[in-house]
Amino acid sequence: MKPIVLGLSIAVLLAACATTTSPTGRTQRVGGVSQAQLDQLGMQAFAEAKAKTPQSRDSRQVAYVRCVVGAITRELPASQQTGWETALFVDKSPNAFALPGGKVGIHTGIFTVARSQDQLAAVVAHEIGHVISRHHDERVTKQLGTQTGLGILGALVGSVYGEGAAQATTQIGGVAAQGLILLPNNRQQESEADVVGQQLMAKAGFDPGQAVDLWQHMIEVGSSQAPQWMSTHPNPQTRIQELRSRAGGLQPVYQQARASGRRPNCG
């Protein structure tokens, strides 16, 4: 009876899911959990991050990252603009993340590669791009449809701490499942977040060309210091070429934003 019940449970779950279109026109399967549940899971994962990692007491740096995050989130649809919380974690790894429920985490190590407000904006906009593109929803839905025994929270914890923490949280085996689902994001989602993020930063008045410089700095720091999420990103040189190509087309958007008074001065 158990296989039958399990099969029916999966069928009910998949029937409840929906097919939608991502910001770049890609077909997505979402709806494994409600948005309210997803937001709650994001907030829970963020609370765990704050409990495990010390936060910076450098008021200047904290104000700096909040300024950049605020400039980016003001360009979101009105329903998504408020309620964002930012934490600056004392961690040498050049990393950042954003979660459903309006949570953004920045590691102090990001300043080694994001050396200007525009480059930090490229990081922040990319991570927020994952949220507004419903990548967490997509990943959790796929996870639930693949193996009902997986813990939903593991997918979100993996966004913050990487594959190892996700594996520990969900306590499952299977290299294939971990590689396909529990890694923070897949290459397709990363490429999409690049597109969405670069558009978002340009609308906020940050130079989209600085995304190219950011990734050049990422390469300079070397693979030994590269963040966990780089393992699932597109080839760095290919990514730089694509970012550079899009930057040219986004210059009118950037210039219009500046002409309209969106001139972030975060420091």
Automatic annotation (TrEMBL):
Highest taxon, organism lineage: Bacteria
UniProt GO molecular function: metal ion binding; metalloendopeptidase activity
Signal sequence annotation: 1-18
Cofactor note text: Binds 1 zinc ion per subunit.
GO process terms (BP): proteolysis involved in protein catabolic process
Domain Peptidase M48: 61-246
Keywords noted in UniProt: Hydrolase, Metal-binding, Metalloprotease, Protease, Signal, Zinc
Cofactor: Zn(2+)
InterPro entries on file: Mito/Outer_Membr_Metalloprot (IPR051156), Peptidase_M48 (IPR001915)
Protein family: Belongs to the peptidase M48 family.
Protein name (database record): M48 family peptidase
Species whose genome carries this gene: Montanilutibacter psychrotolerans
